[in-house]
Amino acid sequence: MLALMFKTLSFGEILWDLFPDYKKPGGSPANLAYHLHLFGNKSYLLSRVGLDKNGEELLKFLSNKGLSDRYIQQDSKLPTGTVGVTIDDQNEPSYSIHQPAAWDEIELTSDLKVLSASLDAFCFASLSQRHDTSKNTVNELLNHLPEKCLKVFDLNIRPPFIDKKTILKNIERADVIKLNQAEHGIVGEWLGTANAADKIVEKHLNKTIILTLGSDGSELINSEGRFYQNAFPIQESGDFVGVGDAFLACFTYLILKRIEPQQLLEISNRYASFVASQQGGMPEIPQDLLDLII
After folding, report:
1. Residues 6+ apart with CB under 8 A from 113
2. Which pLDDT score, from 0 to 100, does residue 90 have?
3. What's the pLDDT tens digit per position in 72-82?
């Protein structure tokens, strides 16, 4: 494939995923920014950490990975975010998201307004908007984006942080919407339909829906139709954290490159299957896999 570089901004939490036996840097937007960076993009993360040891370690981690910390704000009062992670017998992670956290107070700055005007993609999620300050910043950034900018919305619904009004508003404003089967069912109930994806695309022909199906693969729904891809085998036993983020990062990059839907799904699933076999949402990626994408 022809290597292309895009300017992307991922909005939301960077934090520590606390497993029973170890901890790893995480947060869905941080995972997304990491993978977009690996693909050779100018990938920026907009987040906020505390003035504490956890925050210092996360900034050092970003630096070691070559990721810019230019838009990582620091909070003198709130702590760096942490999440307790447990894995069930079906290898599905569950999360205990601690609050309050610094990433709840991400502020809009003049530098961000300048950056937003030149973005190729803006990636945002529902969890990152659980508090008003960060929610308002997302809305303002969406208002400043150029028409060409791809707006990518991830429904990472985590009870009790479910804001129906905000989620439906974000769906209206996004170009690409990613959700899993459970989230698809919730949105369907809100819209009064058994098939939310079809209803959204029928109303907005320019939207693309990604429906992740776990071990059954994924589906893409747009005005051209429905495209399905089986999941790839997982070679090792990992913790399955950040798999959806890896998938979405790969998908975002490939859709910016205007790759056809079926090939786009196949490569994104292959990439996600590797991440599922690793520990944490930001593992080292072998060059031969990156070459397949770039």
Report:
1. 144
2. 67
3. 999 999 999 99
Instruction: Check residue 19 and give its pLDDT.
Output: 87
CA 142 – CA 153 distance, rounded (Å): 11
- C-alpha neighbours within 13 Å on the C-beta side of residue 122: 26
The label of the residue with tokens 């029973």 reads: 20
Burial of residue 13 (number of CB atoms within 10 Å: 0-12, 13-18, 19+): buried
- For residues 155 and 98, give the distance between their C-alpha atoms in angstroms, rounded to a whole number: 19
Overall pTM > 0.90: yes
Which helix (H) or strand (E) segment holds residue 26: the answer is strand 23-26
pLDDT in tens, 235-281: 777 778 889 999 999 999 999 999 999 999 999 999 999 999 998 88
Q: For position 182, what pLDDT does the model report?
A: 93
**Whole-angstrom Cα distance, residue 258 to residue 245?**
20
194: burial class by Cβ within 10 Å (0-12, 13-18, 19+)?
Answer: exposed
Choose among 147, 78, 76, 96: nearest CA to 118: 147
> For the chain, which residues make up each domain, given as ranges?
7-293
Question: What's the DSSP call for residue 164?
Answer: H
The CATH number assigned to the domain with range 7-293 reads: 3.40.1190.20
Q: What one-character DSSP code corresponds to residue 161?
A: B
Ranges of residues in the chain with a pLDDT under 70 are: 1-3, 90-91
Find, among 47, 86, 31, 38, the residue nearest to 66 by Cα: 38
- Cβ partners under 8 Å of residue 169, min gap 6: none
